Amino acid sequence: GSSLLMLCWPVLTVGLPLWITESTVAPPAMAGVCLAISAIIIIIIQIPVGNKVVTLKHGRYVNLAGSIFLSVVCAGFVIAGETESTRVAVAIILGVTLLHALAEVLVVTSKWYFSTSMMNDDHAGGYQSIAAIGDGLAVAVGPAIMIALVGTGNTGWCLLGLTFFIVGVFQAIYSRRILVRTAERAGPSMAPKPEA
Question: Which of 85, 115, 128, 162 has the highest local Cβ count within 10 Å?
Answer without folding.
Answer: 115
